[in-house]
Amino acid sequence: MLEVPANIYPWLKGIVGLVLIGALFGFGMFAIWVERKLSADIQERHGPNRVGPRGIFQLVADAIKLFTKEEIIPAKVDRILYISAPIVILLSVFLMLVAIPVGAVYVNGTEYVLAATQMDISILYIEAVSAIAIIGTFVLGYGQNNKYAMMGTFRNFAQMVGYEIPLGITIVSVAIMSGTLDVVGIVHAQDHIWYAFLQPIGFIVFFIAMMIDMGRLPFDQNEGEEELQAGVFTEYSSMRFGLGFFAEYFHLILGSFLIALLFLGGWNVPGFVTDNTVLGVILPTVVLVTKATLVMAFIIMMRWAVPRYRIDQVVDLSWKKLLPFSLLNLGWAIALGLYLGV
């Protein structure tokens, strides 16, 4: 794998980062459209179909509406926290994006990873900066001076304490089997077989824990509208609400990419040999994006297949189910790693 020296084109990584941020916003709009259309198909209705072909410009109209709506800031909120909370949550997303590869390009047999930066402990870095969203959620709830928002914050903390441990143990299991903490190295370790097959229990545990991390149904306890109105977003309106809404879909996208990278082989295609063909330039990235899109579609369908869990059920699931199974998977990863000579 070829890396550009740090003293050559120092602005290159900045450009790559800006391109990735722009692509993330574009893919976020696509994710919202997919969810609305897929949900409509599941419920046997049309979904967005008026603005543009098959409603593809509906989100543009919604964004214009959010930008032009009056922003109402309640009188008794903490204005500094109220204004800064959506920014903190988006900061977590952009810091994660720095180290998540979104594909690769092969030219003359040399691999160029499409990532803003690479580091030896990228998977630990990603997990660490993802926790910043928890701080943002606390600021979000506390700054509103609203009991529903604060209850949503406490629920989010209860989830965090439960899911972070099995999530971290599962990541350690993957690192043990691959022999590296670098996401790119983990992808290369799956050249012949995906970890979803070598660690099926770990894959399921990681998938569920990641869904809880994303706050997706059936685990969206911090904004359960039946009990908490809009939860942590109760007092938000206009584009500040839109930023929080977008951040949720950004986490969905990046979480789907992580699942594809750690357990589904990333951009690897079994039996595909890279060379100087057009396929070597295009196919790896298309493969990774396709895998992430399929994972995202499955997560969206789960929204309509499983009823929302109560917060006590989520906590029980984390401590009584996910944690023991993650420890079991850790033992399996160690034993299999020793057997394979990793």
From TrEMBL:
Tagged with keyword S-adenosyl-L-methionine: no
Subcellular location: Cell membrane; Membrane
Top-tier EC class: oxidoreductase
PANTHER family: NADH DEHYDROGENASE SUBUNIT 1 (PTHR11432), NADH-UBIQUINONE OXIDOREDUCTASE CHAIN 1 (PTHR11432:SF3)
Any Pfam family: NADHdh
GO molecular function: NADH dehydrogenase activity; reduced coenzyme F420 dehydrogenase activity
Membrane topology summary: Multi-pass membrane protein
Superkingdom assignment: Archaea
InterPro entries the record matches: F420H2_dehydrogenase_H, NADH_UbQ_OxRdtase_su1/FPO, NADH_UbQ_OxRdtase_su1_CS
GO cellular component labels: plasma membrane
Name listed for the protein in its UniProt record: F(420)H(2) dehydrogenase subunit H
TM stretches of this protein: 12-34, 80-102, 122-142, 163-187, 193-212, 249-269, 281-301, 322-341
Keyword Secreted set for record: no
Oligomeric and partner information: The FPO complex is composed of at least 13 different subunits. FpoA, FpoH, FpoJ, FpoK, FpoL, FpoM and FpoN proteins constitute the membrane sector of the complex.
